[in-house]
Design a protein that fits this description.
The protein has twelve helices and no strands. By secondary structure, the protein is mainly alpha-helical.
Length: 293
């Protein structure tokens, strides 16, 4: 799927990085995705300057509609809590949970997939049974069970989402390793006496990572959706205001004050769309067959 990376020539690696960046920026999907995500990151970081308050504190009259009050530009919920402050807080929480849980799933998936694809045989058979065991239960159901067993918190949500999301990455890495382990440069390194660990880490893994980057980008979007669903069900951290928490709070007033659910819902849509478009652009840039079309 990708060209072989030569890590022994820094200049070549630098030129390839520039070429990759050029291909990504040439993709309209990737550029639009980056613009959306930069907007979300700006809200999560710079938004605290304009809305530094506690999202749980009452700051105005209950059920204020957006733009009715200058002090609460996006309105308030049924308890008078400022929605703008809650959305800013939720942006940071959602991005953090999405990134960290995806990092966990990527590390587990890469490790399992690399061992299965490289050693094959009984190692591959055993690890594939473990992957199939995880995939017999829907991801969200398993995440709900894990969060319900432990005390609902940000750490629990991150762990639960990460631990249920690794099988697709493991299957992808296994497929890449099965192909790459038979390539000439790997056979040559093995002939020279390169050990298994060094062969995996320095020769095969760098060439198997590009498709994993694409999958991980999409996994972040899925993790954000999963966290929002958990918080909506009341399984989020009770001390943290996330987008899913705001939607859960406003579901009783969805007819009379739809904006309480609509604004965080729109934020989730924008963020998920941004990661999805970025993943599509990265796939176009990393896949040589798509570039030839």
């Amino acid at each position: 799927m990708s060209a072989v990376w030569n890590t022994t020539r820094p200049a070549t690696a630098w030129h390839r990085s520039l070429e990759f960046a050029r291909r990504v920026l040439a993709s309209r999907s990737a550029v639009l995705g980056l613009v959306l995500l930069l907007g979300v990151v700006a809200v999560a970081t710079l938004g605290r300057i304009w809305f530094p308050g506690d999202p749980w504190e009452m700051s105005g009259a209950p059920m204020l509609w957006p733009f009715d009050d200058a002090q609460n530009p996006l309105g308030t919920d049924f308890m008078g809590r400022d929605l703008a402050t809650g959305l800013v807080s939720g942006a940071g929480v959602s991005l953090m949970i999405g990134l960290v849980s995806t990092l966990i799933s990527a590390c587990v998936g890469i490790t399992v997939g690399a061992l299965a694809g490289y050693f094959r045989g009984w190692v591959d058979s055993m690890l594939m049974r473990v992957i199939e065991l995880f995939q017999t239960v829907p991801n969200f159901v398993l995440a709900v069970v894990l969060v319900a067993i432990f005390k609902p918190s940000v750490a629990t949500a991150v762990f639960a989402i990460g631990i249920v999301s690794w099988p697709p990455t493991a299957r992808l890495v296994r497929s890449e390793f099965l192909q790459l382990r038979e390539r000439e440069f790997v056979l040559a390194s093995r002939t020279l006496g390169t050990g298994h660990a060094r062969l995996i880490l320095t020769q095969i893994l760098p060439n198997a990572l590009p498709p994993v980057v694409v999958v991980s980008t999409l996994s972040i979007a899925h993790a954000i959706q999963t966290e929002a669903a958990l918080a909506f069900l009341g399984l989020g951290d009770p001390n943290v205001m996330s987008w899913g928490t705001i939607i859960g709070i406003g579901r009783e007033q969805v007819v009379d004050a739809w904006y309480i659910c609509g604004l965080p819902g729109l934020a989730i849509v924008v963020t998920v769309l941004g990661f999805s478009l970025l993943g599509e652009g990265l796939n176009d840039a990393l896949n040589p067959h798509l570039r030839k079309r």
